[in-house]
Design a protein that fits this description.
The chain has nine helices and six strands; from the N terminus they run βαβαβαβαβααβααα. The protein is α/β, with parallel strands linked by helices.
């Protein structure tokens, strides 16, 4: 699925799902802007991409802060070109009983998981409109589809990402821009292991009896960012090993 000549921005690209997506899009031919708060992690992803002979550059900053978004996208345009593929992957999670969720925790969850993708997409869409072509892939969560006790702030923020996807898809469907989302199931990542120490037991109870891998999400992302998915927009492509079926 060739993306030669296109620039992709992947937030949270320093590890886990973001790293997997960055590596796959680079293999597809895109120049990849690896965006992460962790400079060492972003640099490591870039090194992995460059070791395979592909083009990538690391960018360090807050993908949910409008000032940081404007500054970094300006550098991406100068270094790699206009953003035509955007993967909104950066996010946080948390397990907290509903009655113990503080206003500060709720605000932080929504700012990073929902407002960040909102503002970053808003900043990238002009490049896509100018090109008459664009792909936005949002990473949501299967918890937004099923609900999740003690993760109300997390699951509701990701539910907002799904609604954001549908609304943007409708608004830009006739402009050459597609917007889709992938709600992962139990994917074995550092963030998941930090939030769910019993991830192996949870995965063993799932239909496939295993956790997903970052590569599973990356493959779906690669497809949705490709020409082959040009007539697909506003859709939820579940990559969850059968955890959610409908």
């Amino acid at each position: 699925m060739s993306q030669k000549g296109k620039t992709a921005v992947v937030t949270g690209g320093g590890s886990g799902i973001g790293r997997g997506c960055a590596l796959q899009l680079a293999r597809d031919g895109a120049a990849v802007a690896v965006w992460d708060l962790n400079s060492e992690a972003a640099a490591e992803t870039v090194s992995l991409i460059q070791a395979e002979g592909h083009r990538a550059k690391a960018y360090v900053g807050d993908a949910s802060a409008r000032d940081s978004i404007a500054e970094i996208l300006g550098r991406v345009r100068a270094d790699l070109g206009p953003t035509l593929i955007l993967v909104n992957n950066a996010g946080i999670t948390g397990i907290v009983p509903f009655l113990e969720i503080t206003p500060e925790a709720l605000e932080r969850m929504y700012r990073i998981n929902l407002m960040g993708p909102f503002f970053l997409t808003q900043a990238c869409i002009p490049d896509m409109l100018a090109a008459g072509w664009g792909r936005v892939v949002n990473i949501s969560s299967s918890s937004a589809q099923t609900g999740s006790k003690m993760m109300t702030h997390y699951s509701s923020s990701k539910g907002g990402v799904i609604a954001l996807t549908k609304s943007l898809a409708l608004e830009f469907a006739d402009r050459g821009i597609t917007v889709n989302n992938i709600p992962p199931g139990f994917i074995d990542t550092p963030m998941a292991r930090g939030a769910l120490p019993n991830i192996d037991a949870i995965a063993a109870a799932s239909p496939m009896k295993r956790a997903g891998r970052s590569e599973d999400i990356a493959a779906a992302c690669s497809f949705l960012a490709s020409e082959a998915a040009g007539y697909i927009t506003g859709q939820t492509l579940g990559v969850n090993g059968g955890r959610v079926i409908y």
